Amino acid sequence: MIVILKQNADQAQLAQLENWIRAEGLDIHKSEGVNSTILGLVGDTSKIDIDLLGALDIVENVKRVSEPYKSVNRKFHPKDTVVDVGGVKIGGGNFAVIAGPCSVESESQICEVAEAVKASGAAMLRGGAFKPRTSPYSFQGMRGEGIELLEKAKAKTGLPIVTEIMDISQLPLFDNVDVIQVGARNMQNFELLKALGKVNKPILLKRGLASTIEELLMSAEYIMAGGNEQVIFCERGIRTFETATTRNTLDLCAIPVLKERSHLPVIIDPSHATGVARLVKPMCIAATAAGADGLIIEVHNDPAHALCDGKQSLTPEAFDDVMKAVEAIRPYAYKMGE
Ligand code: PEP
Ligand code: MN
Q1: Number of domains present in the structure of the chain
Q2: Directed axis angle between helix 213-225 and helix 254-261, to 10°?
């Protein structure tokens, strides 16, 4: 971290600042130029409040030269992390597709979809039991019962199950869930992230609707700081000025940027990113080509009557077609450093 001081900074205040920096366990490299003095802070600056420093009377500007995240940082962990979900691997060259309905609606619905997506090559089953809905009057999910139905679908198909947690109090219901999803709306629920840091299960961390990549990395840092190293990033579209057709704007750049900065796997959710079923296929192809480690796709056996997100859900037939397109593009996918 570099602290640029104002010209003619008060010496007493400067001495105070230097003492404070040293008390934080950091060394100082001071360089005194003609026009300004620069302090280089050496050591672990991750706990330093950059805004607090910047607000001091004698400080002109403060810049971070190292990232505030350590555990998720590729610099300290150059090799790709491979997340293993009961034998299904994601990351480090392993590609996996998660598919299933937005919400679990009934035993027949989730089991039918599970069988269909498995037949087309999906490696895991998704299905929301706790649903974060914009309106309190919309279907809120089958909650605990929904998780039991997912377990039944898993028993039938062998597919590991992925479902969203909305609150720490729900954690006891997730004992048999294979991957716990943190949805976009909870990406910065820090108490939840801390609790998931203590869980021995992979966490699928979705990017917030208006969160930067650095904020996403910091949220993963919360989970990893607690001891849980199995985190998968998911880019699911962000809010931009664009409203033409799409629900969100898919930030495909997040794939290479996250991979440059972190060793954790990155998957893409083209369903919530676009909000439109016909746009899912081109975005799956693009995400695969750009080097994503996997996809999470909404599939429903009767999209027109889905209780949630029918407009963006693929039929099992359309999903099968997408899987073939993704398989065809896989050999040409971009690999970091190429
Ligand atoms: C979902 O996966 O069903 C979901 C609600 O996604 P997001 O949190 O990305 O909106
Ligand atoms: Mn959905």
Answers
A1: 2
A2: 40
Q: What angle do CA 175, 267, 283 make, to 5 degrees?
A: 135
Task: Flag whether 119 is in a domain.
Answer: yes
Ligand 1 atom 3, closest CA: 102
Report the CATH number that the domain containing residue 181 is assigned in CATH: 3.20.20.70
Dist. CA 162–CA 166, nearest whole Å: 13
Helices (H), 128-276: 143-157, 190-196, 213-225, 254-261, 270-274
- pLDDT of amino acid 66: 87
Q: Point out the domain boundary residue: 33, 63, 93.
A: 63
Are residues 58 and 87 located together in one domain of the fold? Answer: no
Q: How many residues does the chain have?
A: 338
**Closest ligand to Cα 308:** 2
Report how far ligand 2's centroid is from the alpha carbon of 272 (Å).
6
Cβ pair 120, 323 in contact under 8 A: yes
Q: Is residue 74 part of a domain?
A: no
What is the structure's pLDDT at 283? 98
Q: Cα–Cα distance between 170 and 186 in angstroms, integer?
A: 14
| pLDDT value for 336 | 87
What value, to the nearest 5°, has the Cα angle with vertex 260 and ends 49 and 242?
A: 80
| Residue 206 alpha carbon, nearest atom of ligand 1 | 9
Q: Can you tell me which atom of ligand 1 is nearest the CA of 184?
A: 8
Same domain, 23 and 127: no
Whole domain around residue 284: which residue ranges?
83-332
Q: Enumerate helices (H) and strands (E) in the chain, giving the number of each.
A: 10, 14
Averaged in consecutive runs of 10 residues, what is the pLDDT profile of the chain (338 residues)? 92 95 94 87 90 95 91 95 98 98 98 98 98 97 98 98 98 98 98 98 98 98 97 98 96 98 98 98 98 98 98 98 98 91
At residue 35, the pLDDT reads: 79
